[in-house]
Every structure is written in structure tokens, then in C-alpha cells.
Design goal:
binds zinc ion; 120 residues
Length: 120
């Protein structure tokens, strides 16, 4: 058996791509008393992405002086947040945005058939 020495100029061809360290590997796994999830992490991630896209698609161009959730005016000096989907922007009272989001996520899960709470 002979070992052929590879010249340095050829070595790059044989080099394996470096594997990136997965960032989640550094996260300690907390012991959980909850039962094992019925879906895998990857499925859950994909579902969250679908829900997020669905919710984003609900954003339409809305007059910036009115809240997209409660439709009441956003008075000067009030805290507000803006959600943007491409060119569509809608503003919310600071406290209305989480309520709107929760409502939309629920609607999204129903629309996408991901709502497990109603399955028997
Ligand atoms: Zn509001």
C-alpha cells in the first residue's frame, strides 16, 4: 500500500465543506413535564411559518390614523405599532396588536386546518 502525497495545489478539491454548527445545539434542553408533542419540531416550525404568512396576508393598506384592530383613531401621542406586508401597512394601538395577532393566528390555524384544539 502506498500513500500518495497530494500536492497543496490539489488539496482544495478534496476538502469537505465545513459543517456549520447548528445554533440550536447550544441551547440547553430544559426538562419538561409536558407530554411528548404530537408533531415534530420541523412540522411545528413549518406550521408557524404558514400561520405567519397567512396573518401577514391579512394586512391591507389602512389609514394610518386609525387602528386596524378596533378601528378607532390613534390619537396623537398614543403608542402604536405598524405591521407591514410588502407595500401594505396597517397601524394598531400598542395594546391592540397582540389581540389582533392572536385572533388572526387562531383564524389562520382554522383556515389552514391546523387547529388541534377542536379535533377529537
Ligand atoms: Zn385599537
Amino acid at each position: 500500500m502506498s500513500v500518495r502525497k497530494i500536492p497543496d495545489s490539489e488539496r482544495w478539491k478534496r476538502r469537505r465543506p465545513r459543517r456549520l454548527k447548528a445554533p440550536f445545539a447550544l441551547t440547553p434542553i430544559a426538562p419538561s413535564p409536558a407530554p411528548a408533542p404530537l408533531i415534530t419540531e420541523a412540522q411545528a416550525k413549518a406550521e408557524r411559518a404558514r400561520v405567519a404568512r397567512w396573518v401577514a396576508s391579512r394586512i391591507i393598506c389602512w389609514p394610518p390614523d386609525n387602528c386596524f384592530h378596533c378601528r378607532r383613531p390613534i390619537v396623537y401621542g398614543a403608542k402604536w405599532v405598524e405591521l407591514v406586508n410588502d407595500d401594505d401597512r396597517a397601524r394598531f394601538h400598542f395594546d391592540c396588536e397582540p389581540a389582533w395577532r392572536a385572533q388572526q393566528e387562531l383564524a389562520a390555524r382554522r383556515a389552514l386546518g391546523l387547529d388541534r384544539s377542536e379535533r377529537k
